[in-house]
Amino acid sequence: MGTRYHITVVDAPDGVDRESVQALVDSELEAVNQEMSTYIPDSELMRFNGGPVGQPVPVSAPLAKVVELSLDIYRRSDGAFDITVGPLVNLWGFGPTAEPEQVPAQAEIDRLLAEIGSDALALQRNPDRLTRKRDVQLDLSAIAKGHGVDRVALLLEGQGITNYLVEIGGELRTSGRNPDGREWRIGIESPTAAGQVVHKPVRVSNRAVATSGDYRNYYERDGVRYSHSIDPRTGRPLSHRLASVTVIADNCAEADGLATALNVMGAEAGLQLAEREGLAVFMLVKTGNGFQERYSSAFAPYLEESES
Ligand code: ADP
Ligand code: MG
Asked: What is the CATH number of the domain that holds 63?
């Protein structure tokens, strides 16, 4: 996944040692990569991308599950979250291919915009089959990290571990109690105008947290900052004033996908969706001289101080 992970296991049953858990985690994450990576040419996803168009292709249960959630978020976000956006991601230099030498031509953007769209996908569950009605290319990068966190969490639970924190590249999920025997608390990174980063404490036991933001993953050309999230409706990197979106949800795939979706939608439309669906969402909006915090009603309880 091009990133690092961090796991805290507070206590484990007898016979479950660090080395064996580490080995299980590594092979689980390798399995997720082999299913969903766009950087592994023979991953299940890349073989699917190169497979037949117009006929159902059998897919693994994990791939079907992540695509099902992705299509759900596609509909809920009115197409802001779209796992067929890959060719545009590559065009702008954020995919497996390198950064572009210059900003892509509008004609090239328009050509790819006409091709993409999750409406080209038809998923059938049990048995799991996925059909590409047009030749679209799937890219699960915006949700696979969160799914990886969920997979590791379930693996730990299968080992009888109930108090843990799993984090992959900033997306995380907690269970039970922290090493001090209290509720887990995490800090949301909040950049200040002065370039410092503060950590806003949030209580998040038995929840997943994911953040989508442009202040760490972007490049600049001619003084313009280009984010690696693409708006599938314009074919261009996000250009609005949202610095980051944090979502708390029951599972990390959902939190991860929604964070990207809401980031693409922007503050107003994103918070409307959050209120409509009761989603716990925290946003940092860029202002002239710093950042403004905005959050949904469902996020407020996580910010309250509490004794635990
Ligand atoms: P962030 O943490 O900023 O949300 P992620 O790593 O979760 O970033 O997702 C960014 C990746 O998702 C991009 O590199 C690209 O592969 C893919 N992506 C970009 N735009 C979209 C989009 N609108 N919908 C779904 N996936 C996208
Ligand atoms: Mg994401």
From this structure: 1.10.3980.10
